[in-house]
TrEMBL record:
Pfam families: Glyco_transf_7C, Glycos_transf_2. This is N-acetylglucosaminyl-diphospho-decaprenol L-rhamnosyltransferase. Coiled coil: none annotated. It comes from Microbacterium paludicola. Keywords: Glycosyltransferase, Transferase. Its EC number is 2.4.1.289. InterPro entries: Galactosyl_T_C, Glyco_trans_2-like, Nucleotide-diphossugar_trans. Gene3D superfamilies: Spore Coat Polysaccharide Biosynthesis Protein SpsA, Chain A. The keyword Glycosyltransferase applies. Belongs to the glycosyltransferase 2 family.
């Protein structure tokens, strides 16, 4: 059994993207956590775990924790988390493995390139398309860069890796978050509080397959308010402020002394 397992969360709307990822990761053990309220379809994965939604929506935090446990049960000594939309670059697994050998006590974060609609997904095309999202550090291939304290909020669960020992020490994701938003930044703040290094891994490229989206994400407004308030009570500040300010400009939310709420009808 491989020393690495790839953990992916998926529901029906992202199934086609997931199947592309599973084809690209053949030969590496895969754990799929199915997060819909339906049964998972037949999938080419070594382990399929079902974490159904909770009363407030998809349980992304609980699903990642379940995926970590399932991957460790397969014998994985390195957990690589990829969004269902993401295709790993040809060097992603090896870059994460090498980084983990040098920083076994860290959480490792590779660059993510957003692909246009209809992009080819073969290795050569992915290499040619590499253009990491500018919001996060992307050191040159082979370079490992320790995140500064102020960079921890840039953590994305789209692509990251860590060992089961680090995962257990952190306590995983806070499962009180349900629905969209907040759990990634909460995880990053937990890393920073515990003095767990976060490493930007040059060359561990992932490629996000195109799908329609909205910015700000109007369909998740209530989730963002609920999870944002939970985060603020825990950490003393609100996450996702860019989206909240966009909602505010549109008149959908109003700012109060302790944060935001829906505007009155």
């Amino acid at each position: 059994m491989s020393d690495i397992a790839i953990v992916t969360l998926c529901s029906a709307p992202r199934l086609a993207h997931l199947r592309n990822q599973l084809r690209a990761t053949a030969g590496t053990p895969r754990v799929v956590v199915w997060i819909g309220d339906d049964d998972a379809p037949a999938l080419d994965a070594e382990s399929v775990v079902h974490v159904p939604p909770g009363p407030a929506g998809l349980r992304l935090a609980a699903a990642r924790n379940a995926g970590a446990r399932a991957a460790e049960a397969l014998g994985a000594r390195l957990l690589v988390f990829l969004d269902a939309d993401c295709i790993p670059g040809p060097e992603l697994v090896e870059r994460y493995r090498d980084a983990a050998a040098q920083h076994p006590d860290a959480v490792l974060c590779g660059p993510v390139t957003y692909l246009p609609a209809g992009a080819a997904l073969d290795a050569a095309s992915l290499r040619a398309a590499t253009a990491p999202h500018a919001a996060r550090p992307a050191p040159p291939p082979g370079v490992l860069q320790c995140a500064a304290a102020e960079e921890y909020p840039l953590f994305w669960s789209l692509s990251f890796a860590t060992t089961p020992a680090v995962w257990r020490a952190i306590g995983g994701f806070d499962e009180q978050y349900e629905g969209y938003g907040g759990e990634d930044t909460d995880f990053a703040f937990s890393l920073r509080r515990a003095s767990v290094p976060m490493i930007w891994v040059g060359g561990a490229d992932a490629y996000h397959q195109h799908h329609e989206t909205s910015s700000p994400p109007w369909q998740h407004l209530d989730d963002i308010l609920r999870n944002g308030r939970r985060f603020a009570r825990k950490w003393g500040e609100w996450p996702m402020t860019g989206w909240l300010e966009a909602f505010e400009r549109a008149g959908a939310v109003v700012r109060e002394d302790d944060g935001w709420r829906r505007a009155s009808a």
